[in-house]
């Protein structure tokens, strides 16, 4: 039997690179996850029932601005105009986002109307 030298002890695998990768993945997913709770806006969609009475109350949001029943208004004048058209805060207000309207602007209008006491906002396509 031929011997080529003494047997070398087996090397144990180095786990440091694997631990580094796991740590980096942990940090990535911690930073990429969302913290806190999401905020939900209660919105009824068209066709979910209920009745509509009174004058028209159509709020259109377009890239160019806001319109109340076809008349361009500022966000401050929108609340005042809707208060003239409603009897109470539970009257239905129809919201329509036109082509190219910004979602954040729609949410801002809904927040403004909710803060003014309007509770029945209906979003139509």
Total number of helices: 3
> Strand share of the residues?
15-25%
Strand order of the largest sheet: 1-6-5-2-3-4
Ends apart, CA distance between termini: 87 Å
Family: Belongs to the ExbD/TolR family.
Pfam family, one: ExbD
Protein name: Biopolymer transport protein ExbD
Subcellular location: Cell membrane
What features would you describe in this structure?
The chain is of the alpha/beta class and 125 residues long. 33% of the residues lie in helices and 20% in strands. It has three helices and six strands. A six-stranded mixed β-sheet has the order 1-6-5-2-3-4, covered by helices on one side. The protein starts with 15 loop residues before the first helix and ends with a strand.
Brief digest:
By secondary structure, the chain is α/β, with parallel strands linked by helices. It is built from three helices and six strands. Strands 1-6-5-2-3-4 form a six-stranded mixed β-sheet, with helices on one face.
Helix and strand topology:
Layout: H1 16-32, E1 44-45, E2 58-62, E3 65-68, E4 71-73, H2 75-85, E5 92-97, H3 103-115, E6 120-124
Parallel strand pairs: 1-6, 2-5, 5-6
Antiparallel strand pairs: 2-3, 3-4
Subcellular location: Cell membrane
Main location: membrane
InterPro entries: ExbD (IPR003400)
């Amino acid at each position: 039997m031929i011997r080529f030298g003494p047997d070398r002890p087996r090397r144990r695998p180095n786990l440091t690179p694997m631990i580094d990768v796991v740590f980096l993945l942990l940090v990535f997913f911690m930073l990429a996850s969302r913290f806190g709770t999401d905020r939900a806006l209660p919105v009824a969609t068209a066709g979910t029932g209920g009745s509509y009475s009174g004058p028209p109350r159509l709020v259109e949001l377009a890239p160019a601005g806001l319109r109340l029943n076809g008349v361009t208004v500022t966000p401050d004048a929108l609340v005042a105009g809707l208060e003239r058209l409603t009897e109470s805060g539970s009257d239905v207000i129809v919201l329509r986002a036109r082509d190219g309207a910004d979602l954040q602007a729609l949410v801002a209008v809904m927040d403004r109307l909710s803060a003014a006491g309007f509770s029945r906002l209906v979003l139509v396509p």
